[in-house]
Amino acid sequence: MSVESLERQARNYLSNNVPQIQEHGGHFEIEDADTESGEVTVAIGGACSGCGIAPMTMKAIKHRLPTEVDDISKVTVRRAGGPRAAVMPSMIDEMEEMEEYEDYDPAF
Prior knowledge:
108 residues; alpha+beta; GMP Synthetase, Chain A, domain 3; FSCA_dom_sf; NifU family protein; NIF_FeS_clus_asmbl_NifU_C
């Protein structure tokens, strides 16, 4: 399998199963893909920058992408850099530790 194929599989899954990102003005990009290890790095940004559930969207992508795409074994999700970067970096770790989000299961 080629890197392009792995990236395409990840992009297709996200476009088809997490349309909220783009529908709400956000964006995602596949920053890195390793065919040997099956590891993929996804960056989200745009309107995700100010979205209160962006950390939970990131968590859902991290957990669901490897279970839904056979050739992907591990996913790292980060905030995109530059002028479209997310503005809530300190909230991600804090929100992942909150009990309210322990069983968070978004509709995508």
